Amino acid sequence: MTRKSIVKPILLSAVLATSTVGLTGCGYNNLQAQDEQVTASWSEVVNQYQRRSDLVPNLVKVVQQYAEQEQEVFTQVAEARSRAGGITVTPEVLNDPEAMERYAAAQEQMTGALSRLMAVSERYPDLKSDALFQDLQAQLEGTENRIAVARNRYIQEVQSYNTTVRQFPTNITAKVFGLDTKPNFTVANEEAISTAPSVDFGDDDAAATQ
Q1: Is the peptide bond before 169 cis (omega within 30 degrees of 0)?
Q2: How much is the pTM?
Q3: More confident residue, 177 or 89
């Protein structure tokens, strides 16, 4: 083996090592890691919203058994679920403020429609005592809590990523690689989702014992 053939791999290794150190030092790896965290936390938000959406048909079905005349409420729930489900949730949404706003608005409408559906139970004691309804109530409450947790985690991950993108010297790296800040929930939405929505089934006695 010639001296030249030995030197070449050594030089190549040195270049690669230098490049790796350079990317680490300029914050590139950190930006990529935080970007992955944002994507992962967003997936959890979407999963929990989907979990809620999957509960809706059974919830409506059991309420209809006791309150067939509440057609306006059922229609509102169906329309809200259709709007929320009609928004394609792709990774591109994370970089599109308008798409993000549409998605958040659709989910807020779904929350409002579900609240109106739950209010129906106040007028139907037999519905409130139905075992299936009580089970769905518990599932919905749990899901709303998980949604709140997932959204708050997403807000924090985006804030962390955006801070890194803006700070020096990582802002230079971000600009070189075309990395920009990501849209987050609006201030109004952020305040609204800081805690899980109250799903009031009017069962004060049960609430007092929990």
Answers
A1: yes
A2: 0.77
A3: 177
